[in-house]
Specification:
Elements lengths: L2 H26 L11 E2 L5 E3 L2 E2 H17 L4 H17 L10 E2 L5 E3 L4 H18 L2 H17 L17 E3 L1 H17 L5 H15 E2 L4 E2 L2 E3 L9 H4 E2 L1 H17 L3 H18 L11 E2 L13 E2 H18 L2 H17 L11 E2 L5 E3 L11 H16 L5
Antiparallel strand pairs: 1-2, 3-4, 4-5, 6-9, 7-8, 10-11, 12-13, 13-14
Helix pairs in contact: 1-13, 2-3, 2-4, 3-4, 4-5, 4-6, 6-7, 6-9, 7-9, 9-10, 9-11, 10-11, 11-12, 11-13
C-alpha cells in the first residue's frame, strides 16, 4: 500500500479534529455562568435547550482529558475538562452515588438516576481526568462509581425497569460492550492488571453470545436462558453501528493479549455487518435493520447517522492495520467517501448527526440529548493515529 495515502488521511482527519470539531465545541459548548456544557446546539452552535444530560456531560470531559493525555497537553483542553468536572462533582450524583440522567442548567435534578450508562461515562470521564490532572478525588469517584455499576449490572434500571423479567428477560449488547470499553480505559489509566479478568469475560460474552455466526450479524438482544427470541421485534433487532463499534473494542482487547484468532473473527464480523447494513441504493449504513427483513418497529430505521459511520471508519481501518485484510481497507475508503460527502457542514463547521436515507440532512442539530461531542472527535483522533502507525508498517 502506498504510504502517501495514509499520510493524506492522517492530515485530513487530524485537521478536522484540531481545526473544526474541537473549535466548534470550545466556542459553543461551555456554560461560563453555571458550569458544565450546553449540549443541545443548532447548526450554527446556538443553544436549543439548556438542560444538561449526565452521560453527555461526562463524554465531553473524557474527550478533552483523553486528548490532553494522548495528543497534546494544551492547558485550554484541561481547563475545558475541569469546567465539566467541577459541575459534575457538585451536582451529578444522588445520595447513593448514582448519576442522575438529567439536570437543569443550574444543576437541579430533573430526571432520576435510572440509566446506568450515565455512570459508565462518569467512570470514563473521572478516571481520564484524574490521569490528566492528578486529582485523587476524581480517581476515587471513578472507582466508587465502577463498583456501584458492578452491583447494579443484573438489573441496571432497578425500580425503573418496566419489563416483567420473570416473563421476559433479555440481555442487551450495550452492557458488556461498554463494560469492556470502560474496563480497558481503567486498565490503561491505572496500569492495573486487575481489570484483565473482566476484559476477558466481556470479550467472551460478546463473541460467544451476541455474535451470531449463523446469520452473520451481531445481535443486539438475546434471551438470558438462550431460548430463541426471533418471534419478537427485540430479538430480530440489528444495530449495525453498535455491533461494529463493539468489534473494534474487541480488537483492542485481543491485541493486548496477542489473540490473533479473536482479532480475525472480529474483523470478519465487521465485514458481515457492513454487508448486511450497507444501503446499495443510496449508500451509507442503515441505522437499524430486522434480522429477517421484516418491518422494523423503529420508524427511523433507514436513517444514516454520523456516529454509525465514524465507528465503521475506526473499525475497518483498525482491522486493516491489525490483519492486513485489503477488503477492510476497501470498506474504509467506501465509507470514507460517503461520510465526507454527506456529514460535514463546510459553512458553519462541525458535522451533522442525522441524515435521511437519501443522505439529506434530516435534523440540523450539531449536538443534542443523545449525540454530542464524543463519537466524532474520538474517531478523528483514532483514525489519524492509526494512519500514522500505517506509515511505519509494511503490510
Amino acid at each position: 500500500m502506498n504510504k502517501e495515502i495514509f499520510q493524506k488521511y492522517e492530515q485530513q482527519y487530524m485537521a478536522s479534529l484540531l481545526h473544526d470539531s474541537i473549535p466548534f465545541c470550545m466556542k459553543h459548548a461551555p456554560d461560563g455562568k453555571y458550569g458544565g456544557y450546553f449540549q443541545c446546539l443548532d447548526f450554527d452552535g446556538s443553544v436549543v435547550s439548556t438542560d444538561k444530560f449526565m452521560w453527555s456531560q461526562n463524554r465531553v470531559v473524557w474527550i478533552f482529558s483523553m486528548l490532553y493525555n494522548n495528543l497534546d497537553k494544551k492547558p485550554e483542553w484541561l481547563e475545558m475538562a475541569q469546567l465539566g468536572i467541577d459541575f459534575l462533582k457538585k451536582y451529578g450524583r444522588d445520595e447513593n452515588g448514582d448519576w442522575f440522567f438529567a439536570l437543569d442548567r443550574k444543576g437541579k435534578p430533573i430526571v432520576r438516576a435510572y440509566n446506568i450508562f450515565s455512570d459508565f461515562f462518569a467512570v470514563m470521564a473521572f478516571a481520564e481526568y484524574a490521569r490528566a490532572s492528578g486529582d485523587k478525588e476524581c480517581a476515587e469517584i471513578a472507582a466508587k462509581t465502577y463498583r456501584r455499576i458492578q452491583l447494579r449490572k443484573d438489573n441496571p434500571k432497578g425500580q425503573y425497569n418496566k419489563i416483567i423479567t420473570e416473563n421476559r428477560n433479555l440481555k442487551n449488547l450495550a452492557f458488556p460492550m461498554i463494560n469492556l470499553n470502560v474496563a480497558t480505559i481503567l486498565a490503561n489509566a491505572n496500569h492495573d492488571g486487575a481489570y484483565n479478568k473482566l476484559i476477558t469475560e466481556c470479550v467472551n460474552e460478546i463473541m460467544n453470545q451476541f455474535l451470531d455466526r449463523k446469520h452473520r450479524v451481531v445481535r443486539e438482544n438475546i434471551a438470558v436462558d438462550d431460548t430463541s427470541v426471533d418471534e419478537i421485534y427485540e430479538g430480530r433487532h440489528v444495530n449495525p453501528g453498535h455491533g461494529i463499534e463493539a468489534m473494534w473494542f474487541v480488537m483492542q482487547a485481543a491485541r493486548k493479549n496477542n489473540d490473533q484468532a479473536t482479532i480475525r473473527e472480529a474483523c470478519e464480523a465487521v465485514k458481515w455487518l457492513l454487508e448486511f447494513g450497507w444501503d446499495e441504493q443510496y449508500g451509507g449504513i442503515f441505522y437499524f435493520l430486522d434480522l429477517y427483513g421484516k418491518p422494523h418497529i423503529e420508524l427511523c430505521w433507514d436513517m444514516k447517522l454520523e456516529w454509525v459511520h465514524v465507528e465503521a471508519l475506526v473499525a475497518t481501518l483498525m482491522g486493516y492495520y491489525l490483519t492486513g485484510d485489503s477488503e477492510l481497507f476497501d470498506w474504509f475508503e467506501k465509507i470514507h467517501d460517503y461520510t465526507w460527502q454527506h456529514f460535514p457542514d463546510r459553512e458553519y463547521g462541525e458535522w451533522y448527526k442525522y441524515l435521511n436515507r437519501r443522505g439529506e440532512v434530516n435534523n440540523r442539530c450539531k449536538s443534542n440529548k443523545w449525540q454530542n461531542f464524543f463519537h466524532l472527535p474520538r474517531a478523528l483522533y483514532l483514525i489519524a493515529k492509526i494512519c500514522r502507525a500505517l506509515q511505519d508498517t509494511d503490510l
